[in-house]
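Handoff note, outgoing to incoming analyst
You'll be picking up this chain. Sequence as last confirmed:
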Amino acid sequence: MAELSLDDATLWYDSCGDGSPLVFVHGGWQNGRAWQPQVDRFDSTHRPITLDVRGHGNTGVTDVDEYSIDLFTDDLEALLDHLDLEEPVLCGLSLGSMVVQNYLDRHPDRAAGAILGGAVRSMPPVELPPGAKPLLSPMPALTASLSMTGPEATFRSMLTSIRATTGQRWLSVEPEVRETAMEAVGEVDSAEYRKIFNALYRFDPPELSHVETPTLVVHGDQEAPPVKRQSREIAAEVEDGAWLELENSGHLVNQDRPTAFNEAAAAFLEERGY
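Most recent structure output, in case you need it:
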């Protein structure tokens, strides 16, 4: 892996291949390895680049008291500038999809394309009355849970609540994928976990009708229904959007159905001569 030194952090990223760049941004409490099936598929035809977002993976703890999707997007911009990438295809999963949406809002026509997996516009993925979020904040309960049980148990508790509410397996339908994801969660520092959650919770999704970037949104059939709805909204809102649902897959759709996801991504890239 390589390092990008910023004033308040050192970001870790990985790059391989020599073709057109595909920049991958992982989901919350995961790391760049979450995109390994896509790196393996495209490293002979493109240039896959994975980033460990602040608080995650090898980047880990950074000297910032509060995280935000805006800050994560600033970091993505810094990486693109550092690597001198002018028209990459940006691929985001979950939290990463928020970062990519934010980037597209700032730069509606700068990326060559966007591929979003498990795409969400807000956390929770439901519309709340104006001004209600601060009053309904789960941060006190989250802080207590992290203090008592740590990140992995806190995350498992969240999964249990989602399954009880939706009846879906949600995160992943594959036990091995699920356990690998849990291992990544266990690597996250408790304070960083809280900062990441707060960034997700406070994110105010941008309106994307001005975005000209071709965008493919992919979700699994075991995805939580509110997330499916938001995925369709994203695909419908951008000027050139499409959505795809893959069977037998959950939120980590790129890992549950790597071959199908890769085929869809390859077709998307080929259609655009990328």
